[in-house]
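hey all, quick one before standup. I had two proteins in the batch that finished overnight and I want to keep them in one place so we stop losing track of which output belongs to which input. First protein below, input sequence then structure tokens straight from the run.
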Amino acid sequence: MSPSEPAGDRARDMLLRPAFVDLPRGPHSLPKDLVARAQRQRLLQAVAAAACRRGYQAMTIGDITATAGVSRKTFYENFADKEACFLAAAETGRDLVKARIEAEVAAVSGHSEPLGFLRLAVRAYLAVLRDEPTFAQAFYLETQHAGPAAQQAFEDCQQWFATLSAGWRALAFPDLAPVPEQAFLAAIVATNDMVRRYLRLGRFADLPDLEDLLIYFHRTLLAIPDASL
């Protein structure tokens, strides 16, 4: 099945978008380090877009450089191959997703009940993926085709979320009986599987509709008492 073009408002698909998009053509006085950073950012955005459009395996370096509007020489000054470029984009995107979720929940820290806090975190996660369709499709669907290193990076990301979830449960519900350690990872894997299903169906705008289901996954697998959310 050929990858579909992600839906959504392109103006909002900004996760990997360079802040300095349009480099001037011809001679200019911009600092070399600024130009180099902008070109690298353009390559990170371009590899996500190309993987989303063509699929990781079919994507070529020519696809990436054409999308980025840079030369092959510039590409090889930054990355050894398309795998290295994809991995860098994945790492950058996931760090930004984590930072955005952390910022969302930090803003209400201490002002929300434990289950309400979980709901806010899940809502922020789904909103990021809805607003970043290129990132979501490229890295939730194409990582599995990008080789062992990319797959391990995705597993590490899932483990990060599982560890975060374990820390939250311990603080929010210190009197609850412990659950198996793998329950936290199971909740994250179930979450990502449902997200992937929506992405495969092109239901980017509908991702926030998963909120109640994802809350159910976490509450059930982590043995959290039913309560008003």
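OK second protein, same deal, sequence then tokens:
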Amino acid sequence: MVDVLTEITIKCPRETVATYAANPDNAPEWYENIESAEWLTPKPLAVGSEIAFKARFLGKQLSYVYRIEEYVPGKLLVMSTAHGPFPMETTYTWQSVSGDSTRMTLRNCGTPAGFSIIFKPLMSFMMKKANNKDLHKIKQILERRK
């Protein structure tokens, strides 16, 4: 079982950060490991939407489908694996903080399977490292656009 929580403060309004981060079309731009995102249900994003992702993690090619479980625009997005190599839930939250800044959290929780037992102790560390890189990337992208 892994449960990794990361957060960052981005110098942009909450609506700007949340709108960008919640759009699966933007995922390949700010997630280092995501290569593509394809809508399997009609846009816009809503509870029940499904998106197919192709990613690379620990040298493995992964294909999985995330289903949107909860969505409160500008505040919360929860998605979980509908089809894929292991059950995982990803949660984003956005909170306004001082001035026009936003605190964004990214949490991944699940039980990776398909990886060697040797890699399991390393999973949380590697996921935290990847999530921190991703949050720094989204911060860079959005702050540069201001």
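Flagging for whoever picks this up: The two ends are 38 Å apart (CA to CA). The chain has a mean pLDDT of 92.
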